Amino acid sequence: MTKSPKKEYFGVVQDVSPNLTKVDDLVIYNGTTYQHPPLSACKDSMKKRGLKQTSIVIVLVALPLLFLAVSLGWIIVPCIIRHEILKKAVISPEVNPELYSAWIHPPVPVYLKVYLFNISNPKEFQNGSKPKLLEMGPYIFRENRTKVNIHHDDATNDAITYEEHITYHFEQRLSGNAKLEDKITIINVPFAAAAIKIAHDLPWPMNDLAQMILINYKESLFIEKTVEEALFKGWKVPFLEKIEQDVGFTLIPSNEFGFFVGQNDTEQGPYTVSRGSEDKSSLGVILKFKNQSELDFWTKSSTCNQIQGTDGTIFSPFVQKSTVLRLFNPELCRSVYLTYTADTDFEGIRGYRFTAPASVMKDPTEGDENRCFCIYDDDEKCLKQGALDLGPCREGAPIAMSTPHFLDANAEYIENSGLVPHRHKHETFLDIEPTTGIILQASKKIQVNLILKRVNGISSMSRVPEMLLPLVWADECASLDAESKGKFQSALFYLWLADFISKWVLLAIALIVSLLLITRKLRRKGVSLPPLFMSKKENSNVLSGTKGCEYKNSCVREDDTSEVFASQQVPLQENHSS
């Protein structure tokens, strides 16, 4: 048998012999048999070249597009949105006239819901029994706040000073059956407070003289008043004027009492706040109250005297769950803080709920945080968890503030009053949209209590239980109205749309364009492979060396070989040689 010659055929070494008898992959031409490259070699060559070209296209085209989309969607556009929001977060008629106008005249309606405690067993209570308290209300008032006497601080260019004009209008429609003419039996607060202060705070002989004046006026420990008198209208207290004249002791400056006397149609302040032009995190933060940067009610040089936070109507944008919202409350004569408790949904708008933790009214004898709110050296005189003695900022009056129904307060206060706290009804909260810092709804709840003590020299007070006696509690609440909510939702939608397009739409476009470019590139630079069978002309060109390989998309399927063979090739012949 003669040795089969070897010939290189398109990069593949072929066996060329006239003596071969195998016909499955042979082409016989002029008596000479040639072995074609196997189909598997054709496919492998295509795969390797295709993968290499695909990798190059991905590196040069797809990855840059994806990088651009991710950079735009997750870095550049969010930074632009953040910058625009922060740029508008300033109290300035030039930079943000809409915010400035809303800051002066808040468009969101604010309501004051007032609940009074009627004492149903005054005689038994006077003789030492627990009080039977009947909660009356709510008596709902529309609260209007307008900033007046506005002055810009030329020295810093960031501070603005103003006073706040406040009015209250009774809303009978919202109050339902609760009317201002309703009668209520309450403890005679001016009489009881004066008797307690005289007996426990005034030195001898001033206390004896003042007590004689009280006795001569024959004041009763309990009185019946209308709700209107008990709240804003008030009533004259003649014995207070007499004590002020003879003893020089002032309990109520106007000698007129009502829980909210002097607070309607009046100005509060002045406040000096940060405009947020230099430090966005300080937007609306109170710098001074009544021209003082610190209070002077509590222990000197203590954190309790620090004025911290805003007035609760404005906050800087981009609020985090870890953010501590600080507010200054003139009614409490102190600053308080709120912490995140839950995600919330206000009519389709996502927000964070912040509430006042129990630690805000922590027992001053338990740790240093609130110790400065008790001005006494003797811890026994300090109020317990959940109550704040307002004597230092209320002319020494025996008045304490607490949460309604003593929520989160010492169990003793709850037991003595017979009240039942409910968190959903009595908890202070604030719902805020985190991106813009806009308040969705808020509810500030405070209860006023009398620090009731026995007074031996006055028979009507010699046997009363010593306790915190609830007098009234109020819920100052606000939420976005329909018009404000509609405008705000539109603004939030455009923010969401910009964020969505910058992230997902750009990313989807980048992926689609990348796939199209890869596909087009592969089609334009397709793999050139030889066919399984060649025509006579092609074979003669190859064998004569006059024509090279110019095959494009020439790999035929195995199931097509019979048709190609029948139409293009010369008949196979058995060619045996010894």
Automatic annotation (TrEMBL):
Subcellular location: Cell membrane
A GO CC term attached to the entry: cytoplasm
Presence of keyword Protein biosynthesis: no
Keywords assigned: Cell membrane, Glycoprotein, Membrane, Receptor, Transmembrane, Transmembrane helix
TM ranges: 56-77, 493-518
GO molecular function (one): scavenger receptor activity
Domain of life: Eukaryota
Family in the record: Belongs to the CD36 family.
Name the UniProt record assigns to this protein: Scavenger receptor class B member 1
Highest classification ranks of the organism: Eukaryota, Metazoa, Ecdysozoa, Arthropoda, Hexapoda
